[in-house]
Design brief:
It is built from eleven helices and twelve strands. The chain is of the alpha/beta class. The protein folds into two domains: about 180 residues, Isopropylmalate Dehydrogenase (3-Layer(aba) Sandwich), CATH 3.40.718.10; about 120 residues, Rossmann fold, CATH 3.40.50.2300. The protein binds adenosine-5'-triphosphate. It comes from marine sediment metagenome.
Length: about 325
């Protein structure tokens, strides 16, 4: 039995986590879950959104499956997701964007992988008030982290037989910070002559993704651009309810959907569990459980193709529990 840390999270978190655990167990994965609390649900008991028990559990188990976690705005709490990524040095955020059968979207056959730097950039959270009415927010870019994420992207591309990496930037304006990010990517690219490498400005990238997304293969981005562009990419395949993600470091990995805690639909049995179920597929592949992972993917595809229990975000009237049950029946 493999022990895995489980964070239910806030908002729709508990509903989509419950669904995912059911599917993973029904698919035959040998997993023992170790549940810990983080986010708003942890404040009452621990007085913090990120108790030490969470860090200790992930350090012990190495792998976590995580529901979305809310951060109260303006209460002095740092985002749990950002803190976890920094504390555990989960420097690579991987977001595969692949078209799904049965899900209405602008394009067919999209297959893009977003590789986002996860630990610095504007998400370093270093902000201060210079004088009343003027604040400064620092964008930190280091040679070390930029080289690490570029290497991750090229190694991933090589392993998965991908043909092209596009580094996305705004170095025409942020000449030093995005300039350094690009320099590091170019240097790493030289070691991978078989993989095509190009560079594109982030605003143009957004337009190109809407006009002609099939030109893209792997996107390499710093933190903020990666966050925004990956939501845009999720929109190309049917939205946040179906887009999976993973945060990967040298020692630990956390698997979580791109979406947030969606408080507007929380507790109503309306959330689409597929984004987290597909994140669990990434987790099972990471663990080498490829057969179980493939079984879940096939079941999800069958259910989407049939379309009887689709949740409202992808055009149906199904409930979280109904689509989950149908996926289990199709395993
Ligand atoms: P964050 O800042 O944490 O990324 P957010 O406020 O940008 O969060 P989300 O919580 O990700 O946004 O959700 C945006 C909207 O997308 C929600 O209001 C919700 O209606 C919809 N949504 C997100 N995830 C799902 C899901 N799994 N199923 C159905 N709808 C979803």
């Amino acid at each position: 039995m493999r022990r895995i840390t489980l964070i239910k999270g806030d908002g729709i978190g508990p509903e989509v986590v419950k669904a995912t655990v059911k599917v993973v167990e029904a698919a035959g994965a040998q997993i023992k879950w170790e549940e810990v609390d983080a986010g708003e649900s942890a404040i009452n008991e621990y007085g913090t959104v990120l108790p030490q028990t969470v860090i200790d559990s992930i350090k012990k188990n190495k792998i976590a499956l995580k529901g979305p976690v809310g951060t109260p705005i303006g209460d002095g709490f740092r985002s749990v997701s950002v803190s976890l990524r920094k504390k555990l040095n989960l420097y690579a955020n991987l977001r595969p964007i692949k078209s799904l059968p049965g899900v209405k979207s602008m394009y067919k056959n999209i297959d893009i992988v977003v590789v986002r730097e996860n630990t610095e950039g504007l998400y370093s959270g270093i902000e201060h008030e210079v004088v009343p009415g003027v604040v400064e927010s620092l964008k930190i870019i280091t040679e070390k982290a930029s080289t690490k994420i570029a290497k991750f992207a090229f190694q991933y591309a090589q392993k998965k037989n991908r043909k092209k990496i596009s580094a996305i930037h705004k170095a025409n304006i942020m000449k030093l910070s995005d300039g350094l990010f690009l320099q590091c990517a170019r240097k790493v690219a030289q070691d991978y002559p078989k993989i095509q490498y190009n560079e594109l400005i982030v605003d143009n990238t957004c337009m190109q993704l809407i006009l002609n997304p099939h030109q893209f293969d792997v996107l390499l981005l710093e933190n903020l651009y990666g966050d925004i562009v990956s939501d845009l990419c999720a929109g190309l395949i049917g939205g946040l309810g179906v887009a999976p993600g993973a945060n990967i470091g040298d020692d630990y990995a956390i698997f979580e959907a791109i979406h947030g805690s969606a408080p507007d639909i929380a507790g109503k049995n309306l959330a689409n569990p597929i984004a987290l179920i597909r994140s669990s597929v990434l987790m099972l592949e990471h663990l080498g459980e490829n057969e179980v992972a493939a079984r879940i993917t096939q079941a999800v595809h069958k259910v989407l193709e049939k379309g009887d229990t689709l949740t409202s975000d992808i055009g149906g009237h199904g409930k979280t529990t109904e689509i989950t049950q149908e996926i289990i029946e199709n395993l």
